[in-house]
Amino acid sequence: MAKSPEQQHPVQAFGWAARDTSGVLSPFKFSRRATGDKDVTFKVLYCGICHSDLHQIKNEWGFTNYPCLPGHEIVGVVTEVGNEVKKFKAGDRVGVGCLVGSCHNCEDCSNNLENYCPKLIFTYCSTYFDGTPTYGGYSDLMVVDEHFAIAIPENLPLDGCAPLLCAGITTYSPLRHFGLDKPGMHVGVVGLGGLGHAAVKFAKAFGVKVTVISTSPGKKQEATERLGADSFLVSRDHAQMQAAMGTMDGIIDTVSAQHPLLPLIGLLKSHGKLVMVGAPEKPLELPVFPLLMGRKIVAGSCIGGIKETQEMIDFAGKHNITADIELIPMDYVNTAMERLVKADVRYRFVIDIGNTLKAA
């Protein structure tokens, strides 16, 4: 007979999980493994709510295993380390993003691209090496192989830093990889949500000219005055879009819903790059002719490797970049999910796990 979540490991843990496709989260008792030789155990203080958490708890991508305990923007303080751990000690500030395991042997792993490992293990809704399910950060403690733990700079507030472990690296990595990090370049950011506002902050820190492209005219002031974008385009305004045709070196598209790509491809210069980082659940239509006529690229990018995630956090520390957050108690999480569906958040919900997660 299969063991219950509470009996799978020796250390009792507590969090909030969804039990079915309703996506409703409620208190959940489970267990974590004891601290192994190379493990870091930490008390979770804050965990961001990512749009992918919403997709997963409702099984909208089709591969959710229940019970599903989400959360992959996790920060806290180390309580114990294994005897072979070199990078961390008790009391250190630490974070975990979307990954807790990979094969360490494939070409991607050997190039510090664990995020593209065919055997990568996600922080939740995956199966760990020992066959037990992975549970995420909407919980009181985490145990992780030190390789997948990120050191958090002392000057960054933990709550505002948490979303960088997904939203931050998801936008930082394509800016770097596709060479859209050179001062004076012009980069568009589609969508001004959790990912989009991080993309604006990182691009501006690289010295890039940034245009926010949004369906909501009401976000203009926010984008330009508060986040420092250089300009703002309403994607439904044909005249505005027409005037900006062929002006951008690259575009980071953060939108997770159905939307047309043709107008975005039109904004690119010849050899421009449209990089998709949002994950719509249905396929988008891709017109090929406008790609041919300017040797343009449509690409995808998924989070980043561990080395690059550390580099991103260190860069954020140097430039004082944090996410703009709304801090919520644990028992508000279902309301937060309803608001997330309506994009009613600026720009990331972060759960105050340390102060509000109470064992049932």
Automatic annotation (TrEMBL):
Cofactor names: Zn(2+)
Keywords: Metal-binding, Oxidoreductase, Zinc
Gene Ontology BP terms: lignin biosynthetic process
Residue span, Enoyl reductase (ER) domain: 23-351
InterPro entries: ADH-like_C, ADH-like_N, ADH_Zn_CS, CAD-like, ER, GroES-like_sf, NAD(P)-bd_dom_sf
Superkingdom of the source species: Eukaryota
A GO term for molecular function: oxidoreductase activity, acting on the CH-OH group of donors, NAD or NADP as acceptor
Alphabetized SUPFAM superfamilies for the sequence: GroES-like (SSF50129), NAD(P)-binding Rossmann-fold domains (SSF51735)
SMART domains documented for this protein: PKS_ER
Keyword Zinc-finger part of the UniProt annotation: no
Family: Belongs to the zinc-containing alcohol dehydrogenase family.
Protein name, UniProt field: Mannitol dehydrogenase
Record organism: Actinidia chinensis var. chinensis (Chinese soft-hair kiwi)
